[in-house]
């Protein structure tokens, strides 16, 4: 039976303040939890209903597993339709940038992305197209927000996320920058080269003025229809797809 302290701890992790305080975040769902169990992340504990436990296969012997009833699970789940599997995972230690690696690949920079679903989709998209690192502004939604984690469908276990003042990061990187802007060169006529920083802006305001000044190559996705704008996660997918296409064509 779950104690009040356990329920209080788990539910508190819906908030960034307490994730930071306890050094833990929530992962829900069979697939996502299995992804983290097979990753470099350290899983603190696992909560499962009897029915869901049968879907988890063999688990590490040292893993702390707590059996809960369906009614108890409803109290700790943040999902409308829980799958009966919830893990508490240790937040990763803070790491410095490996500039050598970043200079050899395309890296996404996110300027104040606010919607958890958008960030989660971007992380999932990045992994699909082989982008291993995402640099977020300090105003971007927390990648370990449960809604973000859920939207990544396990990709967060493999894509590294960093938070830093973007302007300083760009200045230190000395890499070419491509920014998603309404007025710019067509993405389909742009050579993204072998390595660059790809900057995507806020859902409502786009890339901030401070960061726009640091964009070497303003790039736009040509509009053919009448829609006023594209969702930032969709726009990021188009950018990642075009970069991947160029890489494949160039061998």
Structure description:
- The chain is of the alpha/beta class and 251 residues long.
- Helices cover 35% and strands 21% of the residues.
- Strands 7-6-5-9-8-10 form a 6-stranded parallel sheet, with helices on one face. The chain has a 4-stranded mixed sheet with strand order 1-4-2-3.
- Strand 6 (133-136), helix 8 (146-152) and strand 7 form a beta-alpha-beta unit.
- Helix 7 runs parallel beside helix 8 (146-152) and helix 7 (116-128) packs parallel to helix 11 (232-249).
- The model has no long low-confidence stretch (mean pLDDT 95).
SSE layout and pairings?
Layout: H1 4-12, H2 16-22, E1 24-28, H3 30-37, E2 43-48, H4 50-53, E3 65-67, H5 70-76, E4 85-90, H6 99-102, E5 106-110, H7 116-128, E6 133-136, H8 146-152, E7 160-163, H9 166-173, E8 177-186, E9 196-200, H10 209-212, E10 217-220, H11 232-249
Parallel strand pairs: 2-3, 5-6, 5-9, 6-7, 8-9, 8-10
Antiparallel strand pairs: 1-4, 2-4
Helix pairs in contact: 7-8, 7-11
Family: Belongs to the class IV-like SAM-binding methyltransferase superfamily. RNA methyltransferase TrmH family.
Keywords: Methyltransferase, Transferase
Organism: Sphingobacterium micropteri
Task: Summarize the main sheet.
Answer: 6 strands, parallel
Ends: how far apart?
Answer: 57 Å
Helical content (DSSP H or I, runs of 4+): 25-40%
Proportion of strand residues: 15-25%
Order of strands, main sheet, comes to: 7-6-5-9-8-10
User: What Rg is obtained from the alpha carbons, in whole angstroms?
Assistant: 20 Å
Number of helices: 11
**Low-confidence sequence ranges:** none
Count all strands and give the number: 10
Q: Assembly state here? A: single chain
Overall mean pLDDT? 95
What shape does the CA trace take?
Answer: elongated
Derived from helix and strand composition plus strand pairing, the structural class reads alpha/beta
Order of helices and strands: HHEHEHEHEHEHEHEHEEHEH
